[in-house]
Design brief:
With 318 residues, this protein is an alpha/beta fold. The protein contains 13 helices and eleven strands.
């Protein structure tokens, strides 16, 4: 694997999941693999899980880790070609990414969408330019449209629970949840493409107007009636996202969409997932988060093992 930006960079999901589970049982088995190699983790947005799990994964492979909160500690970056930089941007992405590529063997980068201009966000302009000018393998720590390290951890979590069950017989439902702020579609987009590729019986449910981009939802079953969608579910992935069609807008915050214990009654005792951070009482009820059906901490733990598997596969190509 040369980069890890989307599921399309992964030759075989099952092999990657097996690598991750191997690390879960043997965290230090490759403790020298990353000797004298440096990973730089560049954050343009806040993070708890991605930041700590990626550091831990890299350290367990013996890598040096450098972390930079680019939004607070770095110069403001210019991304446009040929502009006279006589306003607020101080450094061009050509030099900034190029310099980081000289210091690092692998770069992880987080860059959220602005949720203003859909075309700009979905072109992944910043991410692709950063990759081009850095010239080293890139790991997405969440881009404008995808969060593949989260999706990998989610697939690992489902695999652990279902063991060797035929994925076609595992019903996974992604349900939209209310939120007070407009959030990116990245987690939902990414989970959809990974769930489809993993071969699950996969349904997305959301209020009308919250359709995901066709490229991400095209192979999923979409059901607008949440209760109908949840019937027989084995796993329910709860996530808010803002509108793709009315780009970046919050169209409703209808609290009837919040998942409660009552709604789980018609499922196959479904396990409940969320990438975190979660707003209690808005996206998910306390009773679910504190109850036996919640997998949120397992998902967060699996971020380490998934990332360790990704870094191993990239290190082997260096
Ligand atoms: N799920 C996730 O990516 O968490 P952070 O934003 O805290 O990294």
């Amino acid at each position: 694997m040369k980069d890890f930006i989307s599921v399309n960079d992964v030759p075989d999901i099952n092999n990657l999941v097996q690598d991750a589970l191997h690390y879960k049982n043997n965290p230090m088995v490759d403790k020298n693999l990353g000797y004298a190699k440096t990973i730089g983790l560049i954050f343009l947005n806040p993070s708890l899980r991605t930041r700590l799990s990626t550091q831990k994964a890299a350290m367990q492979l013996g890598m040096n880790v450098m972390v930079m909160n680019m939004d607070k500690e770095g110069w403001s970056l210019e991304t446009q070609e040929g502009v006279v930089m006589d306003h607020n941007t101080v450094e061009h992405i050509k030099e900034a990414a190029g310099v980081m590529g000289k210091y690092c063997d692998i770069i992880g980068i987080r860059s959220f969408p602005k949720l203003i201009d859909r075309e700009e966000d979905y072109s992944e302009d910043f991410f692709l330019k950063f990759k081009k000018y850095a010239g080293v393998p890139i790991v997405s720590l969440e881009s404008a449209t995808r969060h593949p390290l989260q999706s990998l951890a989610d697939i690992i979590t489902i695999s652990e629970q279902t063991q060797h069950k035929d994925p076609k017989k595992v019903k996974v439902v992604l349900t939209w949840a209310p939120h007070i702020k407009p959030l990116p579609q990245a987690v939902a987009n990414s989970f959809s493409e990974w769930a489809v590729k993993a071969g699950f019986d996969f349904t997305i449910t959301h209020p009308k107007g919250y359709e995901l981009a066709p490229v991400f939802a095209k192979n999923a079953h979409v059901e607008h009636d949440q209760q109908k969608a949840l019937e027989g579910a084995d796993f329910i992935y709860v996530k808010n996202w803002s509108s793709y069609n009315d780009y970046g807008k919050v169209l409703t915050a209808d609290s009837n969409w919040m998942l409660t214990d009552m709604k789980i009654k018609n499922t196959n005792q479904a396990k409940v997932m969320h990438c975190l951070p979660v707003r209690r009482g808005i996206e998910l009820s306390d009773e679910i988060l504190d109850g036996p059906n919640s997998l949120v901490l397992q998902q967060a733990e699996n971020r380490v093992w998934g990332c360790q598997a990704v870094l191993k596969n990239i290190l082997k190509t260096l």
